[in-house]
Amino acid sequence: MHTYGRKPVLFTRGDGMRLFDDGGREYLDFVAGIGTINVGHSHPAVVAAICEQVVKLTHVTNLYYVEHRAELASDLVTLFGGGAKVFLCNSGTEATEGAIKLARKWATANRPSEARGIVTAWRSFHGRTLAALAATGQPGKQESFKPLPGGFAHVALNDIEALDLALDDTACALMLEPVQGEGGVYPCDPEYLAAARALCDERNILLIFDEVQCGLYRTGPAFAHQAYKVRPDIMTLAKALANGLPAGAIVATDMVAEAFGPGDHGSTFAGGPVVCAAARATLSALEAERLGTNATEMGLYLRDGLTALAEESGAITEVRGAGLMVAAEISEPLAADIVAAGLESGFVLNNTGTNTMRFLPPLVCTKTEIDTLLDFLHTQLIGGAV
User: Fold this and answer.
1) Which domain holds residue 314?
2) Disulfide: which of 24, 68, 119, 270 matches 89 by Cβ 3.0-4.6 Å?
């Protein structure tokens, strides 16, 4: 089915920041599978972990224990700061759905019967299944699939007054992306997340952070919320967790996690030994190679370069982001043209709208590769190529 507008290229191999097509042509990848390949393509340790496990055992069922699953959960709890439990799944959408179910199950014992609502932000993106789509704050993505499940309300991001009004007696949870991804890379204001935590605590409402795109060192720390020093009750992860294999996770504090019992939720393929081996190797590489630090440093370098372009040309009206999750707002609706020109010039690029360029390179990105990108963008925006 034609659910993607695919670009005219066939990729057959990857190595670090680079992709290669079926003709052997090399491309610099500034998309990383939409923020998925954080340790770079074909990372040797991840490849070795997959190969070692796949010849031993690929799947049984979650009715039994397998290697790597409990260890991966323990790794995630440690990064989260302890006092939590993990449900493993296969994608970000699955993680969203599970988080919604967990919040509502928790609410049956902790909130009034009318309090089952989930509050999210406009421009947010939480997935494409029906409840996740209902949670998503983008009406254009919802219209063709109505009627959607009820019980969802949306507020403007970074508007504390609107949040105060929305977190009423009908709400059981607030779900936010610390840095909105698909909506165009919009970070939450620190005071906004602090207020969100305070309001949720005051009203016995759960705080859920969707870190599917911004988590796992993409913005610098292990999880984006850690830069704000605001801890959620539930966190969702996916994308970069297994560096390209389908993996997701729900991390919840012990108090909230105990709401789920046997039979409340499940997944046939989640937490399989191959994926868990890949995820553990990915987390090890992220930490051993200090890729969070690199994301912070290279993200600042990229944003500074884009800001210099903006000052020189006026073609960029805003640069925003955190770590290596960066957006540039173009003054004219040329983003798709720049993406197309990039592919012809050996760059894999992405836009999230007619005016917004989004950059999500592997976290192994270097200054040399960023300089190459900035030279290309200079040609496009100042040299009059588009």
Assistant:
1) 290-358
2) 270
What is d(CA 84, CA 74) in angstroms, rounded to the nearest whole number? 9
Host H or E run for residue 364: none
The catalytic residues are 125, 210, 239
The count of domains in the chain is 2
Q: Tell me if 69 sits within 8 A of 232, measured CB to CB.
A: no
Residue of 130, 269, 290, 147 whose CA lies nearest to 217: 290
Looking at residue 309, which CATH number applies to its domain? 3.90.1150.10
Q: Are strands 117-121 and 186-187 parallel, antiparallel or unpaired?
A: unpaired
Do residues 252 and 175 lie in contact, with contact meaning Cβ atoms separated by under 8 Å?
Answer: no
Contacts of 16-25 with C-beta under 8 Å, sequence gap 24+, read 16/40, 16/41, 16/42, 16/362, 16/364, 17/41, 17/361, 17/362, 17/364, 17/365, 17/366, 17/369, 19/348, 25/346
CB 362 within 8 A of CB 294: no
Q: Is the peptide bond before 8 cis (omega within 30 degrees of 0)?
A: no
Q: Note the pLDDT tens digit of each residue in 249-291.
A: 999 999 999 999 999 999 999 999 999 999 999 999 999 999 9
Instruction: Flag whether the pTM goes above 0.90.
Output: yes
Verify that 350 and 202 share a domain, yes or no: no
Q: Evaluate whether 289 touches 364 at the Cβ level (below 8 Å).
A: yes
